[in-house]
Amino acid sequence: ASIPSVYDVALPDGRLAVWVKVLEWPNILSTDIFAPPACTGGYFVQLLVTSFWPWALILVVAAIYALPHILVVAVGRKRSRHTALHDEGARSQRVDRAAALRSACSQTALFSLPLTLVVTFCVVTSSSSHIFKTLLLDSFNYDDVAGESIAYIHDDYSFGMVVRPTGDMTDAYARVWTWALGLIALWPAGVPVLYAALLAAAKRAIKRHEPNALSRAAHFLWSDYRLALFWWEPVELLRKLTLTGFVLLIDEEHGLLRPLVALLISQCWFVGQWALKPFKHSVDNLLAAVASMALALIFQGVLLVKTCQASTDVCEQYGFGGSGDGIFLFILLFSTVTVLGFIAFSLHQLVRSSSQAVTVLLLRATGAPPELRLARGIAYHLFLSHVWSSGQDQVAVIKRQLQLCLPGVRVFLDVDDLVDINNLEAYVAQSAAVLIFLSKSYMDSRNCLREARAAIANNKPLVLVHEADPQKGGLPLEDIRADCPIDLADFVFSQQQSITWQRVAAYQQLTLKLIAEHVVQAHLMSAVHPLEAVGRGCMLCFKGEVTCADLTFARQVTLLVSAHNPGADELATELSTALADWRFSVVSTAEDNGGTNLAAILSRMHAATPQAAQQLGTVFFLLYLTDSTFAGEAGGAPGGAASAPARRRVEPNHSPR
Known about the structure:
By secondary structure, the chain is of the alpha/beta class. Helices cover 55% and strands 10% of the residues. It is built from 27 helices and 15 strands. The strands form four sheets. A five-stranded parallel sheet has the order 7-6-8-9-10, sandwiched between helices. Helix 7 (190-201) packs antiparallel against helix 11 (232-244). The longest helix has 46 residues, at 88-133. The protein is globular, with a radius of gyration of 35 Å. It starts with a helix and ends with a strand.
């Protein structure tokens, strides 16, 4: 949208010039919408309005927030005037008022900071571009003999005048020029410095995974980026400001240098962004890389247009005719297709995410969502205890998904809810249950151990979720148990089995359901009398979920199990218990009195009478695959047993672990 004015590219006349307005949607927050230049008294007033209205909005919101605190301090000061000057109580009150005033200012600043970041992020490029355009002048020959020319502001020929080469300015333009230099320090230079200073001040809290008030208030700046590149936002902002503003510092006599610099910056940025992948989510990295690539191609097109403006003969050699209209149309179509592609891709990802999103959990007994009213003294249904280095992303997913499938649930997550890290124990005490996410370095974290000990002190029900994938920060459960302090081991690992965290959508849904059942049970224990809670069912299910009780067989089914297959017999027994159907039976080599060869069992089945074969029905062989299935002395037995069903047309049923 800034290309025509910033890079001095002449738009073609007619319909093509109208279509470029479609690309100006990023400037929707421009003051021209609610404060047109005709209503603000000219270019100078418009410049001031554009530059200061965001800060005025921020100050108004901050003043509204701070007013009650200031009134409290003022009332206390008025009351203290009736006290003697040298009274110790009066001195103490003055000290308290000063502390209260400092606290009010600090709270106001932290409250206003998120709004400040969002507002400045939205308007910094448009405001900076407006400021830089004050320095963008169009020159006209005035005296050919003396070589003098007159320059006017590009956006408003009725305002300002500079005589070149002497550089004499009118008083009106001198005033605008002086203000523009100051506003450059406020917007295009000041905002990146502000972002960088905030991130530098919060660096320790971000890198050490110990969120404080400042890091939470500046969450907008770093939350979307990987931890190693949490500082990326100020650099990204400098790139935007360079392409839309700082290039205007290049003299107009070197018109081709502006798009050339922009092209080189865009190409280098594309390579760096593709290599570093600064965003946490792959979709964001892909969109950013495609946008950088499209921008580089657009600036390459700008160079072609500028070349056509400089030489008609060269333009004809490109195959776009003698004018720049053909190249402009190419750039316009490419930009439009790129924007539409972004929209289509985003919609595709949105639809895909919605299709994979979990639905609301229902009580199996009533078919209604569970009621999650908090008991007195309880502020959260679940406290998520985790170590940032290996569990931050997983618990963020747990919280987000629980909020979707358990409407009304309140989940404590430090990056969202922690105000003071010294109050960790209080947050645990205010939670109905504590989820411990067992991953690498959890037992080495001082704050994680504080949370676990607070759960012991407050006798909180635990939900253990285990990260088993070593590539995602997982460790074997035995190693985590070995690292657990002695005073925590019995409480953490003796209550219940852990839930393995899953990433496949269907398995993750089951994991979330198991976590939710613990949350509902803990809520009942805290909200009503424990004996009454035991009598209430908290088994949950998703709408349309198929359970083992819903499964029946139309005919007899027999499942064959080899005793030499570790884990297969236990799985078959669990399956038989869950199905509870008389038409389903399990035949194991352990039941073959003395004959442990599964092939012998199949031979007898093959020789059985038709009536006996009908009683057996369809026969399946269960092969339970683990890392020890084909290892050890008995490793070849399951394989030999599996070949026997194949020779006798028995369906194999592979169950990988």
